[in-house]
Write a structure and sequence with these properties.
heterodimer, A: two-stranded parallel sheet, about 25% strand, B: alpha+beta, Cytochrome-c3 Hydrogenase, chain B, 3-stranded antiparallel beta sheet, 8 strands, about 45% helix, ubiquinone (chain B), transport (chain B), quinone (chain B), translocase (chain B), NDH1_su_D/H (chain B)
Chain lengths: ~170, ~375
């Protein structure tokens, strides 16, 4: 029983994706664990709709969304999908140009994307166009810093921001 | 009587300091009389920015952070992280290391489900007795962890390439005792709660999730299986040699809070089955591959997933060949499971919202990271 349940090997998924997305300007390769599609932001919606709705792909489970700071290349967003029906996994990488971190939201296709996108937005500063409620999730509501940017320093001064100016209430 | 008493919407805060929220977590519920008409989750009170801190530490130094995400199942979190690093760096774990990992992960599932069931019974109004019974049994497992790793909750026992220490001679008799004493306890708990009229009245038909709702919200673990989808990563994408062990995937039929409770009870029986098999066939040999202390995995990215007691726990790592990860991301199962709470509570009563929250089995340390 466990044999039929096992996920499809990565090279088979890569072959399948190459057949489906050969015409679009996307690059298909593989990471250490999954097949990967490198996709520009303007074609992202088309790719995800195809991934979700095509019968041979049928990626119905959104696993994870991660925002990554790629320094001078811009901000990247990684989407990981899985298909219950076809037992296959795929990762979609969207690299946004520096200064223009806009990606269309996929909350209408995958309701689970809602909190993932909010987290990616607050942590690295990506902007998901069409998200119903893009406010901070884990950080405080009025905080406007993006702590997972590489430019954001991990320093004591940052942790004590706003506190160091005030005089402590107790003297020992 | 409906229509005679006029009521208007009113906002109440359940939490952040409230015994039913299982940590520092807030539900901003809009209620009309006794009915919840809108709910908003507010979280982040326990945010410790682990993902940022991990970018400045070596791969081995990050293991203790994973203990502190889901503090009720630190072994599972250690395992998920170590698997991700091993996939990234292409490290093989010896068979004994894998068997020890399986035993520890399953013991952790037992301990975590004890807590989940006890706290859930507390939320339904069965005050203190079930939770104390569950704690009595959980204590035996925490003792095993203490003997093996030196700590009860934050074990920090798994290492990249295997586990930190070999098993002690006391380990086997202690696990045999758990195997002997747990089945009567599970039967007792089932007899106490699952046929109890009040418990059934509080949980059956409360917080119903259809299979479509569960997959759309990307739920995993007992939440998904309670809705009738037999999905378990231990079967679907086996790791640590889970394919050698014989066990079943329990599922529910109605997708309500009661089914999630029953699924957890049944999972405990299956875990005992796995531990029995792993302990009987425990291979000899090394328990760890030697890995350099300042590990520098090749450039690339890896996503490793395990079936933690709460669902799909994923660790996503990016390496730039440096001694510390370029990006370290956790996919916490109860964070995603919690996002379905709004759908389950709106339309029900405030008292039911507490029961539904208990049936999700959240750990706030994992949600906020």
């Amino acid at each position: 029983m466990s044999k039929t349940l096992a996920p499809k090997p990565i090279d088979q998924v890569v072959k399948l994706l190459e057949q489906r997305f050969g015409k679009l300007p996307v690059a298909i390769n593989q990471t250490a664990t999954d097949a990967n599609i490198d996709c520009p932001p303007e074609h992202f919606r088309a790719v995800v709709e195809e991934l979700k709705n095509h019968r041979d792909l049928a990626f119905d489970f959104l696993r994870n969304i991660v925002g990554i700071d790629m320094l001078e290349e811009g901000l990247a967003c990684k989407y990981q999908f899985f298909s219950y029906k076809n037992r296959q996994a795929v990762q979609v990488t969207v690299l946004t140009p520096p200064g223009n971190p806009h990606i269309p939201s996929i909350t209408d296709l995958y309701p689970a994307a809602n909190w993932h996108e909010r987290e990616a937005a607050e942590m690295v500063g990506l902007i998901f166009d069409g998200h119903p409620n893009l406010k901070n999730l884990l950080l405080d509501e009025d905080v406007r810093i993006h702590p997972l940017l590489k430019a954001h320093p991990l320093q004591k001064a940052e942790i004590l921001q706003g506190i160091e100016d005030t005089t402590p209430g107790f003297t020992f | 009587m409906t229509g005679i008493i006029k009521s208007e919407p009113f906002v109440i805060n359940i939490g952040p300091q409230h015994p039913s929220t299982h940590g520092v977590f807030r539900i901003k519920a809009t209620v009309d009389g006794e009915k919840v008409i809108d709910a908003e989750m507010v979280m982040g009170y326990l945010h410790r920015s682990m993902e940022k801190l991990a970018e400045e530490r070596t791969y081995t130094q990050n293991i203790p952070f994973t203990d502190r995400t889901d503090y009720l199942s630190s072994m599972s979190n250690n395992l998920g992280y170590c698997l991700a690093v091993e996939k990234l760096a292409g490290i093989e774990v010896p068979p004994r290391g894998n068997a020890i990992r399986v035993i520890m992960a399953e013991l952790q599932r037992l301990a975590s489900h004890c807590m989940a069931i006890g706290a859930f019974a507390n939320d339904t109004g069965a005050w203190q007795t079930p939770v104390m019974w569950a704690f009595r049994e959980r204590e035996k497992i925490l003792d095993i962890f203490e003997v093996t790793s030196g700590a009860r909750l934050t074990c920090n026992y798994m290492r990249i390439g295997g586990v930190a220490f070999d098993l002690r001679p006391e380990f086997e008799p202690m696990v045999r005792r758990v195997l002997r004493e747990f089945p009567p306890f599970i039967d007792e708990m089932e007899g106490l709660l699952s046929g109890n009229e009040i418990f059934i009245a509080r949980t059956r038909g409360v917080g119903v999730l259809t299979p479509e709702m569960a997959t759309n919200a990307s739920l995993s673990g007992p939440m998904l299986r309670g809705s009738g989808i037999a999905w378990d990563i231990r079967k679907a994408d086996p790791y640590c040699g889970y394919e050698q062990y014989d066990f079943d995937i329990p599922i529910g039929y109605n997708g309500d809070s009661y089914d999630r409770f029953i699924v957890r009870l049944e999972e405990m029986r299956q875990s005992l089955k796995i531990i029995q098999q792993a302990l009987d066939g425990l291979p000899g040999g090394p328990f760890r591959t030697e890995v350099p202390l300042a590990l520098r995995p090749p450039k690339g990215e890896a996503y490793a997933r395990i079936e933690s007691p709460r669902g799909e726990l994923g660790y996503y790592l990016v390496s730039d060949e440096g001694p510390s990860p370029y990006r370290f991301h956790i996919r916490p199962p109860s964070f995603i499971n919690l996002s379905a709470l709004k759908e389950m509570t709106v339309g029900g009563t405030v008292a039911d919202a507490i029961v539904v929250l208990g049936s999700i089995d959240i750990v706030v340390g994992e949600i906020d990271r």
